[in-house]
Each structure stands twice: as C-alpha cells, then as structure tokens.
Design a protein that fits this description.
The complex is a heterodimer of chains A (115) and B (226). With 115 residues, chain A is an all-alpha fold. Chain A has helices at residues 2-8, 14-35, 41-63, 71-89, 94-99. Chain A is built from 5 helices and no strands. Chain B is built from 7 helices and no strands. The chains are: A mainly alpha (115), B mainly alpha (226).
C-alpha cells in the first residue's frame, strides 16, 4: 500500500515550480546578454555550456521530478549519460588536426541559386 | 494488469526489478531509458556539430531581429510549456483530471506556438538562400576570412538537421499530449506523469540547442550587410 501512495504523491508545490521557471527565464536572459559581449569563443562556449547544464539540472531535478526519486534511479541514469557523452568527446581534438586538411579554393565555388 | 494490482501491495526493493524497479513503475522507467537514448542521439549530433565548427570557417549570420528575437520567444514558449505541463501533472496527482486536461492543452498551445515560430524562422533563412549544402552568396562574401578561406556550407546541414530533429520531437510530443488530453479521464496519473517526462526532455534538449546553435552564431557587429 505504501508503494502505491508513494507513486501517487507528486512532491513540489506550484510555487516551487514557478520559481524554477523564473530562474530558467533569468538564466536564458543572461545567455542572450552574453551573446553580445565581446569575448574569446572558448570562454563563451564554457560559460554557455555551464549555464545550459545548470538549466538542464533544474529541469531534470524539479520538473522531471528526479530530486524526489530514489537515489538508485538517479545513479542508474545520470552516470550512464555522463560517461557516454564523455566518450563522444574523445574524438573532439581530432577537429584541430583536420583544420589544416581543408583544400583551399583559389576561386569561389558557385553560390546557391535563389529558388 | 492483475499482477500489477497485487504487486502494489508488496513494495519491491529498489533493485528488485519486476513491476516497480527503482520503485517508479516499469512504464516510467521505460520512458526514462528512452530519454537517455534520445539524449545520446542529440549529444552525438551536437558534438558532431562542435567538431565541424572547430575545424571549419563558420559563418555567424544571425541578426538580432528576426533570428534572436524569434528564438528567444521560442525558448520562452518551451519553458512556459514545461511549467504548464508540471502544473498539469501536479493537478493529476491531486485527482483533478479536469484541471490536468486544461494545463495539458495550454502545454500543447505553447508547443504549437514554438513550431509556428520555428517554421517562420526557417522560412526566413530559406528565403535568404540557405540550403542544407550551400550558403547564400552574400554570406560567403561576408564571412570569407582575410586569408581567403571560405565559410563552410555545412552550416545549413547542421542547422536544419539539429533544429529539424528537435522540431520533429516537439511535433510528436504535441500529438502525444493531444492523445493524453483527450483520454485524460481514462488514464492513470502515472501515464500523465510519463507524458510530462517526454515533454520536459524536449525542453531540455532546446536548453542546449539554443545557445550552441543560435547564441554562438550571433552576428555581433552587424557584419552581414543586406
């Protein structure tokens, strides 16, 4: 019976969800503001990714209710995702090698025709 | 169904599997596993995009109006749709299925608004001459580097693929929520919560797509003369 009750109870008040929504909007406005600040692209990328991860964590924890789930579920899903994404990143430095491999056109190729 | 009814009275251990693995119910776990697999699909596409961007001259053509304004309003629509969805799930957990239906319909409204705005934005870019494998002529002339390197036409391919796949998820989600809203009185609370999980996932993906595709390609300084 207790498992049934646990299943039906959806923790978190509407006030909490609204405050999370306000935070998400504010973080988005910060991102848009940063778009027009001159800075090296590496810093921009790290800050934007950091903000995106914070926003994703807020959505997963509160809207998707993960904060109120069992730790076993969190431990099954989150590390799996992090590890797989890190594995995808392993090949990223290869892009710096391939920068120098591009064929340099001496004249412009034909541009797209307006249709 | 009868095994499920009996199992409810026997709380399973977290790792016991069966009908309530991790005490969430097997359908909800199924949706979580689908979300993980779909996250990996989008991660692979975004990392592929990052790879191409690092190894090519990349145009940054998005003007404040209409591109950034439209995409910001689209972000607002999706975030608001997540809020209305969570209100709907909360109403459903309190047994108020009528309120849940209203909140789900509001979620669908914001989702459809997102799609309409996105299609208008696509139309604007296609009208300028952007295609999956070629750039408009004025973009090529603006973004060619001082040492003569041309901007890559893969801008179009990555843009349309990533935003197109996301838009497809939003459209599918809107249909899914439409079915849930229509059948809300017959569905269990868990099923409404599961549809909420899918919708929040769609919003979550946009939290990465918007900064990486739009914010990083803003035309700061208005280089693109029209």
């Amino acid at each position: 019976m207790s498992a049934h009750v646990e299943e039906e109870h959806f923790a978190g008040s509407n006030k909490l969800f609204t405050s999370i929504w306000v935070w998400l909007i504010l973080l988005t406005l910060v991102e848009i503001f940063l778009a027009y600040r001159p800075m090296p692209i590496h810093y921009m990328l790290i800050i934007l990714l950091g903000l995106s991860i914070i926003k994703a964590a807020l959505i997963v924890a509160y809207f998707m209710h993960m904060k109120f789930e069992r730790l076993s579920l969190i431990l099954t899903i989150v590390p799996m995702l992090v590890v797989c994404i890190c594995l995808l990143f392993v090949f990223f430095p290869d892009s710096f090698r391939s920068v120098g491999l591009r064929y340099e056109f001496k004249e412009q190729p034909p541009a797209a025709e307006e249709q | 169904m009868s095994t499920e009814a009996r199992a409810v009275h026997f709380p399973a251990a977290d790792w016991g599997g069966g009908v309530h693995p991790y005490r969430v119910g097997h359908r909800k776990l199924g949706m979580w596993l689908f979300i993980v697999s779909d996250s990996l699909t989008f991660s692979a596409l975004l990392i592929g995009y990052a790879y191409l961007r690092a190894s090519n001259v990349w145009p940054t053509p998005f003007p404040f109006y209409p591109s950034i304004v439209f995409s910001s309003v689209m972000t607002f629509c999706l975030l608001s749709s997540s809020l209305t969805m969570v209100f709907g799930v909360s109403a459903s957990s309190h047994g108020n299925k009528t309120a849940a239906r209203k909140w789900i319909l509001a979620t669908i409204f914001f989702g459809v608004a997102f799609i309409v705005l996105h299609l208008i934005e696509w139309n604007h870019l296609i009208g300028e001459g952007l295609r999956p494998f070629s750039l408009p002529a004025h973009w090529i002339s603006t973004f060619t580097t001082t040492d003569g390197k041309l901007p890559t036409p893969l801008f179009g391919a990555t843009f349309f693929t990533i935003t197109g796949l996301h838009m497809f998820h939003v459209a599918t989600g809107a249909v899914y929520l439409g079915v849930v809203a229509a059948r809300v009185k017959k569905l269990k609370h868990e099923d409404i919560e599961i549809s909420g999980l899918y919708w929040h996932f769609v919003d979550l993906v946009w939290m990465f797509v918007f900064p990486l595709i739009y914010i990083l390609s803003v035309d700061v300084g208005g280089h693109l003369a029209k």
